[in-house]
Write a structure and sequence with these properties.
- By secondary structure, the protein is mostly beta strands.
- The protein has one domain.
- It has strands at residues 2-5, 30-33, 37-40.
- A 3-stranded mixed beta sheet has the order 1-3-2, with no helix packed on it.
- Bound molecules: iron/sulfur cluster.
- Residues 5, 9-10, 13, 15-16, 20, 23, 42, 44-45 line the site of iron/sulfur cluster.
- Iron/sulfur cluster binds at residues 5, 9-10, 13, 15-16, 20, 23, 42, 44-45.
């Protein structure tokens, strides 16, 4: 089973260009599961503000 953050979260996150593969996605709150991929709410998400 593959875990990935909710689509769009990474695009607006300050960590978008970081390698987030170390994060424990499998322990994050699950939003949906299509049988192949579990979508999770990334607990390390930080909204990027305009600079
Ligand atoms: S911290 Fe989470 S939401 Fe942000 S870029 Fe990494 S995986 Fe995506």
């Amino acid at each position: 089973m593959t875990h990935q953050p909710k689509g769009g979260m990474c695009a607006t996150c300050v960590h978008a260009h970081r390698d987030c593969s170390h994060l424990a996605f499998s322990t994050m709150p699950r939003l949906s599961n299509d049988g192949q991929t579990v979508i999770v709410r990334c607990t390390d998400f930080q909204r990027r503000t305009r600079q």
